[in-house]
Amino acid sequence: MWLGAIGAGSALYAWRESTAVEVREHRLSIADLPPGLDGLRILHVSDTHFPANGDSIGRFLEQVWPLDYD
After folding, report:
1. What distance in Å separates the CA atoms of residue 11 and residue 70, rounded to the nearest whole number?
2. Which of 6, 51, 58, 68 has the smallest number of Cβ neighbours within 10 A?
3. SS3 for the chain, per residue?
4. What pLDDT digit, counting tens, does each position of 17-67 carry?
């Protein structure tokens, strides 16, 4: 019984992690940066393990599109 509960809990955790989106903002100071790049805002996306359905991708895009990046 416990083994089944552990397996179900692991599956639930994996599903939740695959649909979670975390947005973080970092400010960097870079010496000798060309003036044309001053204030550049970069969007970096990594570790996208979306399930096969489009719902997760849609939720991700709803959170990313409003962000202010170049």
Report:
1. 37
2. 68
3. CHHHHHHHHHHHHHHHHHHCCCCCCCCCCCCCCCHHHCCCCCCCCCCCCCCCCCHHHHHHHHHHCCCCCC
4. 656 677 888 888 899 999 999 999 999 888 777 766 667 778 888 888 998
Q: Which two tokens stand for residue 68?
A: 């202010």
Give which of 53, 44, 45, 46 is closest to 15, Cα–Cα: 53
C-alpha of 11 from chain center: 20
Which structure tokens are listed for 5?
Answer: 């509960």
Distance, CA of 4 to CA of 8 (rounded, Å): 6
Q: Taking the complete model, does pTM exceed 0.85, yes or no?
A: no
